[in-house]
Amino acid sequence: MRRPKLVITAACIGAEVMKEDNPAVPYTVDEIVDQIVGAREAGAAIAHIHGRLPDGTPTQALEVYREIIDRVRERCDVLCQVSTGGAVGMSAKERIQVLGANPDMATLSMGTMNFGRDVFENTLPMIELFLEKMRARDIPPELEIFDAGMMDTALRLFRKGLFQPPQHFDFVLGVPGGMAADIEGLVYLRSRLPADCTFSVAGMGPSQLPMAATAILMGGHVRVGFEDNLYYRKGQLATSNAELVARVVRLANELDVAVATPEEGREILAIPAREHA
Ligand code: KMH
Ligand code: ZN
Description:
With 277 residues, the protein is an alpha/beta fold. The chain has nine helices and 14 strands. It has an eight-stranded parallel β-barrel, surrounded by eight helices. It has a two-stranded antiparallel ribbon with strand order 3-4. A two-stranded antiparallel ribbon has the order 7-8. Bound molecules: (5S)-5-amino-3-OXO-hexanoic acid and zinc ion. The site of (5S)-5-amino-3-OXO-hexanoic acid has 11 residues, from strand 6.
């Protein structure tokens, strides 16, 4: 059977990377929108969005997300996925307000973990609350799996009836404190994926490219971008998110895998259509 078209997500911003790490990291709404539009033009179907203040401080302020999403939608058809993870240390209330920006999709992390030297908190009550708020607005969650135990949590919630197929997962591999980015881990996670569900893979740092290639070969989808990796290759900073997306498109072309448009991505990942203001 031919695999479905490849859905590429561009994670252009994140909450941790700074201009000191790579001057092309976007902070202002203008910079963020330009990076997202560039990533769409390069082949991304989904933009995974974080907010920043002009000095680079991460923010979940609703007005920042609204402005980003409204301006992105004026310029292109990319699907807008908001981060409900935000940055470590943010409260649940702060993180969840971004659902008000009318996104096409939102992330939902499946457990608490060490995140570098910090703790990324996602208790079960938080997961249930976030899911309830998403359901109330008919916003589909993307289940973020940072380690094997989070897959068990997700499966438990399937058994409880909180999730049902088709459901999209994102395997975020190589975060210090989470699961390593290697083929064995990815094969294990995919083996536990419920039937009729889809997955994408986000590899951190130097694992971004090999994880993208592996995901394509395994029939999955791919997330790339500055949130996860700032380098084009060892010692060479990427100049834009578009550059990282374009490389995945070239890989897919070489492997004879077609790349999905946002509309096709919506269908493949079962993202309901939304009214855009
Ligand atoms: N910034 C991380 C602590 C998400 O976007 O949902 C969490 C994160 C996950 O980036
Ligand atoms: Zn994120």
